[in-house]
Structure formats: C-alpha cells, structure tokens
Give the backbone structure.
Amino acid sequence: MLVANAWSSGSSSCTECSNRKVRCQFTKETSRRMSYIKQVQDLEKQLQNSKQQFQHLQKGMMRPDCMADMDGGVP
C-alpha cells in the first residue's frame, strides 16, 4: 500500500510507517519495504477475531432450537 510521499528521508519516517507508529526502513535507495511486522500482526489479529466469530456462529447454529429454524420450523 504505497501512498504519496511514502519515501523515508532518512531522519523522518514515510507516511505509512508514521501512521502505524513503527520505525521506517523503506527508502528510495532500497526501493522495497523491509518491515511489515505491524501490518502482519494486524492481519493475524483480524484473522483470529474472524475465526472466533465463525466458531461462535457455528456453535449457535448447532443448538437444537436453531436446527428447527433451519428445517423450516418442522420439529
């Protein structure tokens, strides 16, 4: 996710790193990002939350009272 003025000047961070409050390791000289640690951690957290929500919903659908709803109300 490259944005305008995303290059680090050496003493200051690029826009992306400043927004994420991480040390910038991306410069014009390297032409690549060296650290996506914060972004990866954010994605891992989102994935874990999604898995937990999915499991919660799955458990809710397995309740006997919900099974009747899935059959169109026929017990």
Summary: Residues 1-8 have pLDDT under 50 and may be disordered.
